[in-house]
């Protein structure tokens, strides 16, 4: 694997930034959470951080507005407030944690996987007879603050609660919005 350049956004509009968290932050985050990442090379960890950032950056509809029109990532933002109505500046700690969580998940799973919440069709087969298999119907999950989860990874949703908007259906559209 070629050397991967991890360029960390620190809230100052870093050119070509591709991560919200450093490699050291990722290592500490996983150690604190009891995860042994010693067998994973630094290059793979960098790739996981970039994947985690891409997922976080593009999946959620963020509150507030981009601070710089030229910034490569969705953060930093302006007009973004926490639950105490204090303005959030720079790169929020919860965003760094969510990127680390997404990076860890990306080690074994496809972050962009989806889960049917309506019991949709999982598979169909025609082999002399028709067989249709449905996903199990699931209730939409809502946390105590009334926020509808938007990703199939609740650990990420909880870390980012209060920073993102949901659509009327409670599902964020996984596309990049120009905001």
| Estimated share of beta-strand residues | 5-15%
Count up the helices: 4
Class from secondary-structure proportions: alpha+beta
Instruction: Name the assembly state.
Output: single chain
What is the succession of H and E elements? Answer: HHEEEHEEHE
Integer-rounded radius of gyration? 18 Å
Low-confidence region ranges:
115-119, 135-145, 168-179
* Main sheet specs: 2 strands, antiparallel
C-alpha termini separation: 35 Å
The total of beta strands comes to 6
Main sheet: strand order? 1-6
Shape: globular
Helix content: 25-40%
Q: On the 0-100 scale, what is the average pLDDT? A: 80
Task: Describe this protein with a few key phrases.
single chain; alpha+beta; two-stranded antiparallel ribbon; 4 helices; 11% strand; globular
Structural topology:
Layout: H1 23-32, H2 42-59, E1 61-62, E2 65-66, E3 77-78, H3 93-106, E4 121-126, E5 130-134, H4 154-160, E6 164-165
Antiparallel strand pairs: 1-6, 2-3, 4-5
Helix pairs in contact: 1-3, 2-3, 3-4
Short account of what is shown:
By secondary structure, this protein is of the alpha+beta class. It has helices at residues 23-32, 42-59, 93-106, 154-160, and strands spanning 61-62, 65-66, 77-78, 121-126, 130-134, 164-165. Helix content is 27%, strand content 11%.
Please characterize this protein's 3D structure:
The chain has 179 residues and is of the alpha+beta class. It has a domain at 23-112 and 150-165. It is built from 4 helices and 6 strands; from the N terminus they run ααβββαββαβ. It has helices spanning 23-32, 42-59, 93-106, 154-160, and strands at residues 61-62, 65-66, 77-78, 121-126, 130-134, 164-165. A hairpin with a 3-residue loop joins strand 4 and strand 5. The relative contact order is 0.17. Residues 115-119, 135-145 and 168-179 have low confidence and may be disordered.
């Amino acid at each position: 694997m070629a050397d991967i350049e991890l360029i960390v956004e620190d809230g100052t509009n870093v050119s070509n930034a591709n991560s919200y968290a450093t490699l050291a932050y990722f290592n500490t985050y996983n150690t604190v959470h009891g995860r042994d990442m010693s067998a994973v090379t630094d290059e793979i960890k960098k790739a996981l951080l970039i994947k985690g950032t891409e997922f976080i950056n593009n999946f959620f509809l963020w509150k507030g507005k981009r601070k710089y029109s030229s910034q490569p990532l969705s953060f930093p933002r302006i007009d973004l407030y926490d639950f105490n109505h204090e303005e959030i500046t720079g790169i929020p700690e919860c965003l760094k944690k969510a990127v680390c969580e997404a990076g860890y998940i990306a080690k074994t799973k496809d972050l962009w996987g989806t889960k049917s919440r309506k019991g949709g069709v999982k598979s169909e087969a025609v082999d002399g007879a028709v067989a249709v298999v449905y996903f199990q119907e699931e209730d939409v999950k809502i946390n105590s603050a009334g926020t509808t989860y938007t990703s199939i990874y609740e650990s990420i949703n909880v870390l980012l609660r209060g920073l993102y908007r949901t659509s009327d259906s409670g599902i964020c559209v996984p596309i990049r919005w120009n905001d």
